[in-house]
């Protein structure tokens, strides 16, 4: 299975989020032009979809080795390449693990408190639950990419 198919779910999520953002923004502009009023919910929905787009896109970039990282040290010290790849993986897993943990805690609290979004009155946890889920997806894609780099199956040049 190639890397394109590995992150298919994240690709679909990012594509849908971008399409919906474009459509609601266009609709909002058209309505505002003709009526001098706008849809109140579009900002809330757009921010939510931007989070989905950002994390899903980062997951795809992670899997295909297109994510930003500093490769200068690896090029300067080629004998340390393997340990440096592992250190990069550990540091990234630590950060993504914290995002997953604290994002999950936040989503659970939003669920328990039954808080609602200000614009649409939807449960806030519907928006927040995507943060830990997509951070977890990023950790999986990072691990897949790291294994491929360690096995020499993935070029380190983007």
From TrEMBL:
Tripartite ATP-independent periplasmic transporters DctQ component domain segment(s): 23-151
Pfam families: DctQ
InterPro entries (alphabetical): DctQ, TRAP_DctQ
Transmembrane feature ranges: 12-33, 45-62, 83-104, 124-143
Top-level division of the source organism's lineage: Bacteria
One GO term (biological process): C4-dicarboxylate transport
Keywords: Cell inner membrane, Cell membrane, Membrane, Transmembrane, Transmembrane helix, Transport
Membrane topology note: Multi-pass membrane protein
Keyword Transport: yes
Subcellular location: Cell inner membrane
Gene Ontology MF terms in the entry: transmembrane transporter activity
Function: Part of the tripartite ATP-independent periplasmic (TRAP) transport system.
Complex formation: The complex comprises the extracytoplasmic solute receptor protein and the two transmembrane proteins.
Protein name: TRAP transporter small permease protein
